[in-house]
Design brief:
Elements: H1 7-16, H2 21-25, H3 35-38, H4 42-54, H5 56-66, E1 69-71, H6 80-83, E2 92-96, E3 103-107, H7 114-129, E4 133-136, H8 142-152, E5 157-160, H9 174-183, E6 184-188, H10 200-211, E7 214-217, H11 225-235, E8 239-242, H12 253-260, E9 264-265, H13 269-275, E10 302-303, H14 305-312, H15 316-329, E11 332-334, E12 340-342
Parallel strand pairs: 3-4, 3-7, 4-5, 5-6, 7-8, 8-9
Antiparallel strand pairs: 1-2, 2-6, 10-12, 11-12
Length: about 350
């Protein structure tokens, strides 16, 4: 229909024509002249021919003006790992730089606890310092905290959207989006003008899982998009790690279930670096993931749960849940008299 050099335009026309999974599979055997495309419905071919002339130039012109690029498999900057997944997108609108570094997706609940946000931020910061791209979905909660941690370290971080390139979602993350574009990349497979829709987020999660060498689940309820990302990652042969959580919290059901099913436990940022074969930054593998409650339990001092609740201002139930997390991480030890004592972080390897 068109010479191979125009495949990016053909793929964009197919996206404009509908771009669902069945349409994506039409290009599964190479260029638009492949055997699957040859069997495409005549009506689709007619519509694609019209779009190539009428709509594709307008979309590409808009993308250029807005600072976005349209990338397809085979382009120099297109992520190779994503191109080899079971259902790669027809193409990606990208704003920013797609560095060829290892990618780790950090995902979790939009309703994350203060602990979950702190863990995500710490992971984002340590991974970025090690030169790993921190990918997430720029949602509220865990996603935003992971991006913010990576930005604190100077990046890189990628945000994969479930809306078009002109539709920042959630809208209060507009400034975060600008910072991510400057220190990493914004990525979406959706057309300009397409708003966030419920079914977009599972689709977005397959892209997030396909980009990553490993997926880390921080906090997630039993029915969660983060768990969809983890399942898709496993289907693609990626590493999946989970942060152990309190058995009293519904947001721990997801990661704790993954651990029961064989996911790697993540207790320090060094665990994920080891899983993807990266050398941790100095001291990272020996650091225990922090919790704000530790600020109220200095090394060498012992305290009861009531004392810690009074010092921190947290509810007693929150203190119990936090202490259980910290016990699992090895950050505190429960003494025979019921009080708690802080453990020193392991020294970094020489």
């Amino acid at each position: 229909m068109r010479e191979p050099g125009q495949q990016p335009r053909l793929r964009l026309a197919l996206l404009l024509a509908g771009g669902g999974r069945a349409t994506r599979q039409l290009l599964g055997e190479g260029d638009g002249g492949g055997p699957l495309w040859a069997r495409a419905p005549a009506a689709l071919k007619t519509e694609v021919a019209r779009l190539l002339d009428d709509e594709v130039p307008n979309v590409l012109a808009w993308a250029k003006r807005a600072g976005w690029r349209w990338l397809v498999p085979g382009d120099r900057d297109y992520p190779t790992a994503l191109a080899h997944t079971a259902d790669p997108p027809l193409g990606l609108f990208v704003r920013g730089e797609l560095r060829p570094d290892p990618v780790v997706a950090v995902v979790g609940s939009r309703r994350a606890t203060s602990y979950g946000r702190q863990v995500a931020r710490a992971l984002g910061e340590e991974l970025a310092r090690a030169g790993v791209v921190v990918a997430s979905g720029m949602a509220r909660g865990v996603d935003a905290a992971a991006h913010e941690g990576a930005l604190q370290a100077g990046g890189p971080t990628w945000a994969v959207w479930g809306s078009g390139p002109d539709q920042v979602y959630p809208p209060e993350h507009r400034e975060l989006a600008l910072a991510i574009a400057e220190h990493g990349a914004l990525i979406t497979e959706y057309l300009p003008g397409v708003g966030p829709r419920k079914h977009h987020f599972p689709e977005r999660n397959r892209v997030l899982a396909g980009l990553a060498s490993a997926v880390v689940v921080v906090e997630a309820a039993a029915r969660s998009g983060a768990l969809i990302t983890a399942r898709l990652a496993l289907d693609e042969g990626r590493e999946v790690l989970a942060v152990p959580g309190s058995i009293l919290s519904e947001l721990s059901v997801g990661p704790n279930t993954l651990l029961r099913l064989g996911a790697r436990p993540l207790l320090t940022p060094g665990d994920v670096l080891e899983a993807i074969g990266c050398t941790p930054s100095p001291g990272a593998a020996g650091q225990i993931v922090a919790h704000p409650l530790l600020d109220h339990l200095p090394p060498g001092e012992r305290a009861s749960t009531d004392e810690l609740a009074a010092r921190s201002g947290l509810a007693l139930g929150e203190v119990h849940a936090a202490l259980l997390d910290l016990e699992l991480e090895g950050a505190v030890v429960r003494l025979a008299d019921g009080r708690f004592e802080r453990r020193q972080a392991r020294p970094a390897a020489e």
